[in-house]
Specification:
single chain; Glutathione S-transferase Yfyf (Class Pi), Chain A, domain 2; four-stranded mixed sheet; 16 helices; Glutaredoxin; 3 domains; alpha+beta; Alpha-Beta Plaits; six-stranded antiparallel sheet; 10 strands
C-alpha cells in the first residue's frame, strides 16, 4: 500500500497516519509534490486530487475517515465496534465529525492560523458552535469513557482529532472546566501512543487566542459624477460602548474602597451607595449561569467554574463592581451574581470579550423602585457565606472589584 500526502501534519493526512499506526498496518508514505501531482501516473490514481490518497491492490481511496475505516477493517474490524449497533454508532459519530464539527473547526482556524479569510461574524458563529458541539459530547459522555462501547474506537480518534486544533487555541481552560466529561476523554485520546507518534504531545490552551478577521465587504456603489471635493473629516473609531460614554461623576474606585470597609454593608452602605451613584451613567444587573447537564452537582467543581468566570472578567474591573455566589445545595448548585456596570447596556468587555459570558442569563435591575431588586443588592453585597441569599444557602461568595 502507498499513502500519498501533501502535508504530513495537516489534519486529514495526520488522521490517516494515526489510523495506519494504531491498527498495526504498514504502508509507504509518499509526500506528493506539485511535480508528482501533474504526472499522468499520479493523475490516473486520483479523481478528486485531494489528500490523503491510499493506493491498494484493489483500488484507491480518498478521504481520511474512509481510509481510517479501511485500516480498521484490515485489523479485523478492531476499533469499529463489537456489534451491529456499535458499528452504526461509530459511523454516526464519524458522520457528526465530518458534517458538523469539521466545517466549524475550519472556519475558526481560518481566523487563528490564517488558512483563509474569515469575517468576524462568521468566526464568532463557528467558535460558538464548537462550544455547543462540545456540550453535546459532554452530555453523551456522562458515565462513559468513550463515545461507543467500553473501548476506544476510530470514532473517538476522529472526533477528538478534529477538535485538537480548537482545544489548543480557543477552547480554553475556563471553558474546559465546565466540560468535566469531554476534557478527560480528549486527553485519553491524545495520550494514545499512535497520536503521540504522529503529532507529538497535544497540549490544550490555558487562554484563548484571538483571531485575525477581515473587515466585512460592503457592496460597491456605481460611480457617480464627481462632486466638488470637500475636506474629509476623520471619524475616530469607537472601540467599545463603555469608552463612548460621557464622563461620570461617580468614582467607582474610591467607592469600592469605601464599601468593602463599611461595617454595615447590607444597610447604611447600600443607602449611601444609592445617594452617591450616577444612575444615568451606571446600572445594576443580575447574572445567572445557565447550567448544562451534569453541572452544579459538586461544590468544588462549581466553585472552580465560578472562579474561572471571574478571573476572565478581571479586565473589566475599571468599570464594574460585583459580588458573585455559589448558592444552594449539592447536587443542585447555582451560580448567580449582582453586578454594577458602567452605562445602561452590558459592556462590550463582557459581552464580546469574555468567552463564558454567553452562558449567563442577564437581567437589568431597578433597586431604587423594585423592592425585590433592592433586597438582592443588599443580600449579595452585604451577605456572607452560610447566609440565605435569594432564598438559597450561600456556599461561596466572591468579590469582583
Amino acid at each position: 500500500m502507498k499513502l500519498y500526502v501533501n502535508n504530513p501534519l495537516s489534519t486529514p493526512n495526520a488522521l490517516a497516519r494515526i489510523a495506519l499506526d494504531m491498527t498495526g498496518q504498514t504502508a509507504e508514505i509518499v509526500v506528493a509534490d506539485e511535480a508528482m501531482r501533474k504526472t499522468p501516473g499520479y493523475k490516473a490514481l486520483t479523481t478528486t486530487d485531494k489528500f490523503p490518497l491510499l493506493q491498494t491492490a484493489e483500488g484507491c481511496l480518498h478521504e481520511s475517515t474512509a481510509i481510517a475505516k479501511y485500516f480498521c477493517s484490515l485489523a479485523g474490524d478492531k476499533f469499529m465496534g463489537k456489534n451491529a449497533v456499535e458499528r452504526s454508532q461509530v459511523d454516526q459519530w464519524i458522520s457528526y465529525a465530518n458534517t458538523t464539527i469539521f466545517p466549524a473547526m475550519v472556519t475558526a482556524m481560518n481566523g487563528i492560523f490564517g488558512w483563509g479569510e474569515v469575517q468576524q461574524a462568521d468566526w464568532n458563529e463557528a467558535a460558538k458552535n464548537l462550544k455547543a458541539y462540545c456540550k453535546v459530547l459532554n452530555t453523551h459522555l456522562e458515565g462513559k469513557k468513550f463515545l461507543v462501547g467500553d473501548e476506544m474506537t476510530i470514532a473517538d480518534v476522529i472526533v477528538a482529532f478534529f477538535l485538537s486544533y480548537p482545544f489548543q487555541t480557543i477552547l480554553d481552560g475556563g471553558f474546559r472546566k465546565a466540560m468535566k466529561n469531554v476534557s478527560p476523554w480528549a486527553e485519553s485520546v491524545y495520550a494514545h501512543a499512535s497520536v503521540i507518534k504522529v503529532c507529538g504531545q497535544i497540549v490544550m490552551c490555558a487562554k484563548p487566542l484571538k483571531p485575525v478577521c477581515v473587515a466585512e465587504k460592503k457592496p460597491e456603489k456605481k460611480a457617480a459624477a464627481a462632486p466638488v471635493k470637500k475636506e474629509e473629516k476623520k471619524v475616530e473609531k469607537v472601540l467599545d460602548n463603555v469608552q463612548s460614554l460621557p464622563p461620570s461623576p461617580f468614582d467607582v474606585y474610591d467607592f469600592k474602597t469605601f464599601y468593602v470597609n463599611h461595617p454595615d454593608k447590607k444597610g447604611a452602605a447600600v443607602d449611601e451607595w444609592y445617594k452617591m451613584l450616577d444612575w444615568e451613567g451606571w446600572s445594576f444587573w443580575f447574572l445567572h449561569y445557565e447550567k448544562y447537564t451534569g453541572e452544579g452537582e459538586v461544590l468544588h467543581v462549581t466553585n472552580n467554574l465560578m472562579a474561572g468566570f471571574m478571573s476572565r472578567a478581571e479586565h473589566t474591573s475599571k468599570y464594574t463592581f460585583a459580588r458573585q455566589a455559589v448558592l444552594g445545595e449539592e447536587p443542585n448548585l447555582e451560580i448567580m451574581g449582582v453586578w454594577l456596570m458602567r452605562g445602561q447596556e452590558l459592556p462590550d468587555g463582557l459581552v464580546k470579550e469574555h468567552p463564558q459570558f454567553e452562558y449567563y442569563k442577564t437581567r437589568k435591575m431597578d433597586p431604587r423602585n423594585n423592592k425585590d431588586d433592592d433586597k438582592l443588592v443588599r443580600e449579595f453585597f452585604g451577605g456572607k457565606e452560610d447566609d440565605t441569599i435569594n432564598g438559597m444557602h450561600a456556599q461561596t461568595l466572591k468579590w469582583h472589584k
